[in-house]
C-alpha cells in the first residue's frame, strides 16, 4: 500500500512537471526580438520588436544585429547600403509601434548609403536612450529631404562622427535638444550637407569633443552658423572644419580654445563669401597649411593675401581675425525699405514675417547683422 502511494505521488509529480514544461516552452519561444523586414519590391524597410518574425512572408527578414562586410572590411547592417554597394532601392523606412520597447545600444550605419531613402515614419518609436554610437547613422542618405529627430535621447552617445554626412538634400536640421555632453567625436558630422540652409545646434555641449575635423565641410548653402558657445578645450583636430562653406559671411569663434589643436589645415579655406571671423585671440598650431586658402574677401586687421595663408594670420592684430565687441556688431546697419532679401534670426532660422512685423532685435539680412529698434 505504501509503495502504491509513493508511485502515485511520483506519477503526480511527473505530470505536474510535464505541464510546467509545456507552459514554459511557449513562453521561452515567444521572447520578442528586433528585426527588419524588407518588402518584396525592396522599397520599404520596417523595423519590428515582437514574436512574429516567422510569420512574415517576405524573403528578406534580417535580425537587428545581422551584418555584412564590404570589400574594405567595413561592417554594415545587412539591410543598409555600403560604399561599394549602395542601397538604391529603398525609399521608405517605417518603425512599427512594437519597436518602442526595444533598446538598441548602437545605430551605426543603420541607414548608411540608402541613397534613394526619402522618408522615415514612426521615428517616435525609436528609443535611443541606450545608444552610445550613432556613427554614420544617416550617412549618404542623398534623397532624404526632411528628418525629425526631436525625440532622440542622446545622453549616452559618445560618437556622432559622419552622422548626417552627405545628406545632400536636407535643407533644415534642428538639433537644439541634443544632449552631447558625452560626445567625443564629431568628425565630419555635417560634411557635404550641401542643401542645408538652417542648422540649430545651440544646445551642443562640446567639452569632451576631441575631433571636429571636416565637421561643416561643404555646407555650401548655409548662410549663418552659430558656434559661438562651443567649448573646444579638448579638440585636437579642426582641419577642413569650415572649408567650402561658400555662403557664410561671418563666423564667431571668439570662444574657441585652441591650445590642444594640432591640425588646422584648410580650416577656413574656400569660403569665398566670408568677410569676418570674430576672435580676440592669437592662435598657434603645428599644421595649418592653406588655412585661409581661397577666402579672398576676408578683412580683419588686414585684407586677404594669397601668400599668407597659415596660422600666422590667425590673430586680430595683424591677421584676418576681427576683434569682437560686446555685441558682436560694430556699426548699426539700417535695412533698405525695399528689400526682399530673406531674414534669419541669430540661430539661422528663416523668419516668415515681414521686417515690419518682426519684434525688436538682431537679425541676419544679406549675411549681415541688422538691428531693428
From TrEMBL:
Gene Ontology CC annotations of this record: SCF ubiquitin ligase complex
Pfam families: DUF285 (PF03382)
Keyword Cell cycle: no
Keywords annotated in UniProt: Signal
GO biological process: SCF-dependent proteasomal ubiquitin-dependent protein catabolic process
InterPro entries tied to this protein: DUF285, Liste_lipo_26, LRR_dom_sf
Signal peptide start-end: 1-29
Identification of the protein by name: BspA family leucine-rich repeat surface protein
Species this chain originates from: Prevotella sp. GTC17262
Amino acid at each position: 500500500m505504501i509503495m502504491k502511494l509513493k508511485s502515485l505521488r511520483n506519477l503526480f509529480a511527473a505530470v505536474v512537471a510535464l505541464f510546467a514544461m509545456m507552459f514554459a516552452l511557449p513562453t521561452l519561444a515567444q521572447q520578442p526580438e528586433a528585426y527588419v523586414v524588407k518588402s518584396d519590391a525592396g522599397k520599404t524597410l520596417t523595423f519590428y520588436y515582437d514574436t512574429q518574425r516567422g510569420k512574415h512572408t517576405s524573403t528578406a527578414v534580417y535580425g537587428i544585429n545581422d551584418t555584412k562586410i564590404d570589400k574594405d572590411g567595413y561592417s554594415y547592417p545587412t539591410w543598409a547600403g555600403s560604399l561599394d554597394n549602395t542601397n538604391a532601392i529603398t525609399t521608405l523606412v517605417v518603425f512599427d509601434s512594437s519597436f518602442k520597447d526595444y533598446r538598441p545600444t548602437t545605430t551605426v550605419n543603420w541607414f548608411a548609403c540608402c541613397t534613394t531613402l526619402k522618408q522615415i515614419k514612426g521615428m517616435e518609436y525609436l528609443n535611443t536612450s541606450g545608444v552610445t554610437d550613432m556613427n554614420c547613422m544617416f550617412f549618404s542618405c542623398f534623397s532624404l529631404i526632411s528628418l525629425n529627430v526631436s525625440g532622440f535621447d542622446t545622453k549616452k552617445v559618445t560618437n556622432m562622427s559622419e552622422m548626417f554626412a552627405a545628406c545632400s538634400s536636407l535643407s533644415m536640421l534642428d538639433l537644439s535638444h541634443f544632449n552631447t555632453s558625452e560626445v567625443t567625436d564629431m568628425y565630419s558630422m555635417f560634411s557635404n550637407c550641401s542643401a542645408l540652409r538652417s542648422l540649430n545646434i545651440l544646445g551642443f555641449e562640446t567639452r569632451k569633443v576631441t575631433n571636429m575635423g571636416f565637421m561643416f565641410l561643404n555646407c555650401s548653402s548655409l548662410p549663418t552658423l552659430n558656434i559661438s558657445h562651443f567649448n573646444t578645450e579638448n579638440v585636437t583636430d579642426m582641419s577642413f572644419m569650415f572649408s567650402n562653406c561658400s555662403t557664410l559671411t561671418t563666423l564667431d569663434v571668439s570662444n574657441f580654445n585652441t591650445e590642444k589643436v594640432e591640425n588646422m589645415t584648410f580650416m577656413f579655406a574656400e569660403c569665398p563669401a566670408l568677410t569676418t571671423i570674430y576672435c580676440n585671440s592669437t592662435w598657434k598650431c603645428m599644421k595649418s597649411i592653406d588655412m585661409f586658402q581661397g577666402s579672398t574677401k576676408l578683412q580683419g586687421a588686414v585684407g586677404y593675401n594669397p601668400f599668407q595663408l597659415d596660422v600666422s594670420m590667425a590673430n586680430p592684430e595683424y591677421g584676418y581675425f576681427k576683434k569682437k565687441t560686446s555685441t558682436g556688431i560694430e556699426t548699426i546697419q539700417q535695412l533698405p525699405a525695399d528689400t526682399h532679401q530673406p531674414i534669419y534670426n541669430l540661430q539661422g532660422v528663416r523668419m516668415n514675417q515681414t521686417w515690419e512685423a518682426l519684434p525688436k532685435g538682431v537679425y541676419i539680412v544679406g549675411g549681415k547683422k541688422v538691428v531693428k529698434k
